[in-house]
Each structure stands twice: as structure tokens, then as C-alpha cells.
Amino acid sequence: MLIIPTYKERDNIVSLVSRIRKAAAREAIFFVDDNSPDGTADEIRRVQQFDSRVRLLVRPGKLGYGSACRQAMQEILRDGLDDHIIQFDADLSHPPEMLPRLLEMLGEYDVAIGSRYVTGGGSQKWDFRRRTLSFGANLYARAFTGVPVHDMTAGFVGYRAQILRKLDLASIRSEGYAFLMEMKFNLHRQGARFGEFPIVFCEREAGKSKFSRKIMLEGVKFPLKALGRRIAG
Ligand SMILES: Nc1nc2c(ncn2[C@@H]2O[C@H](COP(=O)(O)OP(=O)(O)OP(=O)(O)O)[C@@H](O)[C@H]2O)c(=O)[nH]1
Ligand SMILES: [Mg+2]
After folding, report:
1. Which pLDDT score, from 0 to 100, does residue 126 have?
2. 20 to 30 A Cα–Cα from 170, which one of 22, 40, 182, 186?
3. Domain limits, the chain
């Protein structure tokens, strides 16, 4: 089952679902919309009329990306809805065409990651500055957390339900990039085996980024916190 958090993504929904359906016809989709003022939830409800495998949870307000992923994970695990969970962004930055590859990899690994930083991966339409920043941030995150993953801030990630059950999801409080790193860090501590496959990350065409200073600071702080936890054992 795919988890797709949405905030003001109305113009991406139709092409998103149609590309997912071409790649993974039977994969269920769980949208978590934070009451987007642009009518994203109504657009998802329209899609639900002809696709019974689309589920929608609307929350009262903008509670954050990490919290949306967490809540959906908790519901899927609680109700035993699927044996695997995939995180996916609504802005088409992650190629839906790589879903079969991810599913295949979950046959072999506990966690499968669509990575920009393995051979064949990359980022489209990113300038030198953003590329360097992201690559450097990943080196820093990898060194401090000790997690053997090249793309620590990857948001296109598949997990076996079985490995997620080992985590105390309620204790994971971070939101943006930090959430993505904290998940990988905690899974590594539980002995998860990670597989990475290359993806070319594509800059969003419709809608606006929700990236903020607060999310960036949280992302800078997490590897330090992780190092502290490693030292403390
Ligand atoms: N439910 C929910 N979804 C969110 C929230 N913030 C972001 N999202 C969604 O999470 C996904 C990733 O957010 P983006 O805005 O693309 O953030 P980003 O990928 O860091 O930034 P860009 O790709 O540069 O725009 C998208 O599907 C967003 O719609 C939130 O507070 N609540
Ligand atoms: Mg994005």
C-alpha cells in the first residue's frame, strides 16, 4: 500500500494516480490530506469514484508530512491492511514507473530505497548549488548516523510491515527530512537490511514546495542527535 501525504496538490492528483496505475495496477493508495484549502481532497474523492483501491483520510489542518506518514503507517499496521508500506510524494518527484522495481526489491530486503546517490540515480533540473547541498547533507547524515544508506533523505521508500512493527512509531516526532532520516536510523538499529535502487528525482511542476527553514534546521540537527544516541549506546 502506498502512503501519499498531500497538502495543496490538487493539480497533481489525476496524473499521479494515472501514472501509478500504469506501473502498479493493483497497489492500494492511502492519501492523507491535511484539509488543503485548494480542494485536493475533492479531487481525490473524484478519483475514488472510479478507483476502489484509493483510500482517503482528511485531517482537520496542516499537521505535517512526518505526522501524516506516521498516522497512515499506524492505521495500516493496526488493521493489517498490507504486508508492505511505501512512502510516496504527490508532486511527481518520485517516478511511479519505478514501483515494480521497488516491490521486487522488497522481496529481498526489509527496506527498499529509491536513491539519487547510487549509480544511475540523480536529480533533474537541480542547479549545481542545490545538488552540492543535498549531496553534502547526505554525506554528513550518513557519517553521523552510521546508517549504510547513500540517500538518507530519500522519500521514496518501501518497508516490509514486519520490520515497521519493530519500531515505536509514536516516539518518532520529527517532520521533514529529519523524519526520513530518523526512520532509517531507527530501522538500522532494529537490524533492518536496506536495498537501494537508482531513481532520477524530478523537480515538481505543479503546486508549491512546503520546504521551510524550520524543516531544514530540524534536518541539520537530527544527525547530531543520532550521533549522541550512538555514543550513549
Ligand atoms: N498531509 C500533509 N502532507 C504534506 C504536508 N507537507 C507536505 N506534504 C506533502 O508531502 C510531500 C512532500 O512535500 P513537498 O512540498 O514536495 O516537499 P519537498 O519534496 O521537500 O519540496 P519540493 O519537492 O521542493 O517541493 C508532498 O506530497 C506534499 O503535498 C503536511 O503538512 N501535511
Ligand atoms: Mg517534493
Report:
1. 85
2. 40
3. 2-232
pLDDT of residue 205: 82
The candidate with the shortest Cα–Cα distance to 134, out of 158, 155, 117, 114, is: 117
User: 34 CB under 6 A from ligand 1?
Assistant: yes
Ligand 1, atom 12: nearest CA belongs to which residue? 89
- The ligand placed nearest to the CA atom of residue 68 is 1
Q: Which of 51-60, 73-82, 103-112, 199-208 has the lowest mean pLDDT?
A: 199-208
Other C-beta atoms closer than 10 Å to the C-beta of 169 total: 15
Average pLDDT over every residue of 190-210: 91
Per-residue H/E/C for the chain:
CEEEEECCCHHHHHHHHHHHHHHCCCCCEEEEECCCCCCHHHHHHHHHCCCCCEEEEECCCCCCHHHHHHHHHHHHHHHCCCCEEEECCCCCCCCHHHHHHHHHHCCCCCEEEEECCCCCCEEECCCHHHHHHHHHHHHHHHHHHCCCCCCCCCCCEEEEHHHHCCCCHHHCCCCCHHHHHHHHHHHHHCCCCEEEEECEEECCCCCCCCCCHHHHHHHHHHHHHHHHHHHHC
CATH topology assigned to domain 2-232: Spore Coat Polysaccharide Biosynthesis Protein SpsA; Chain A (3.90.550)
Cα distance between residue 34 and residue 38, in whole Å: 11
**What is the pLDDT averaged over residues 139-153?**
96
User: What single letter denotes the amino acid at residue 100?
Assistant: P
Q: Which atom of ligand 1 is nearest to the CA of 215?
A: 20
